[in-house]
Fold this protein.
Amino acid sequence: MPSARSIGRVAAGMDVDDLRALVHRHYERRRRNKSLHPVIGEIRPLIFDGHESTSSYLRCCRGCSQRRVTVAEGERVQYYHRYVMAMLLHGDGCLLLDIEPQGPGEGESTAAIRLLKRLVARYPRAFNAVIGDSLYLNPEFCRLAVEHGKYFLAVLKDERRDLLVDARGLFECESSVRLESDKKLYQCWDIEGFTTWEQFEYPVRVVRSIETSTVRRWLADEEQEMISEWIWATNIPQTAVGTEAIIRIGHARWRIENNGFNELVNEWNADHVYKHEPNAMLVFLLLLLLAYNVFHAFISLNVKPQLRARHTTRHFAKLVAAEFYIPSGDHFT
Ligand SMILES: [Zn+2]
């Protein structure tokens, strides 16, 4: 086995484009195998989100961002790394397509735009919609999507925005539709043709959903009503996708938190810094994307459903890990 230091040194000198090409090869194989199905109707969503992987007061490198943090001893400079990841949703799961580091002094949207530019060139037909939180309702990001024939859908949150003020005005006078799904009540508004987003030249559709669910509080032995409000802006026309599907696509964004970052961090140690050098850190993350995609493809396409039903995913991960410790030639059967 090479030493940890050698692995770090090799990672620092590796070409990230070669690794991205490997992730693409895995995608191409899945596409040709026809194992990637659309999620909702004909929508193939690509979800974007940012993640902070590490922060430190002591160690920094040329890729570190900086911020001033007030601690008990006064103000200190903290160094950190952030990334934007793109996750392709498909009928049975998700594929992690790519990751882009946020450079020093750079915002999440700048890194996301760079990532989207690379993905429309490398994966022109893999997705037809880009999804994100309120940060992704950025005119440059949405325009880039539209110019490449993609839909966008993002959370509309900032109460100061003319678009939201305008939409709230119309929600007051337009009638709503009631839907029910998974023990949740949805009161929805769906209005097209808004042109009040000044920096954006295309008309926008706004969908609002007030969601009521009942939660049982066992300690107090009572039922409590939970109400949440969601508003999304999109260019997906009503003729292509109905209100209920827009709400499902909007909430599917959580999958990048639950299936993406949470699993990568808690099960795959994604935030561990094996070598604090920007190229090495990106190389480890891209290797992780590849391992994640191959592992999940193995579980969902190779392991027989009866066997899959009997064990947890973690059990299969342990069997794979155990193979590293047994002499070559001997394998679990
Ligand atoms: Zn650093």
Summary: The first helix runs from residue 4 to 13. The beta strands are 45-56, 65-71, 74-90, 93-101, 129-132, 151-155, 177-181, 184-194, 204-217, 222-234. Residues 6 and 307 are 39 Å apart (CA to CA).
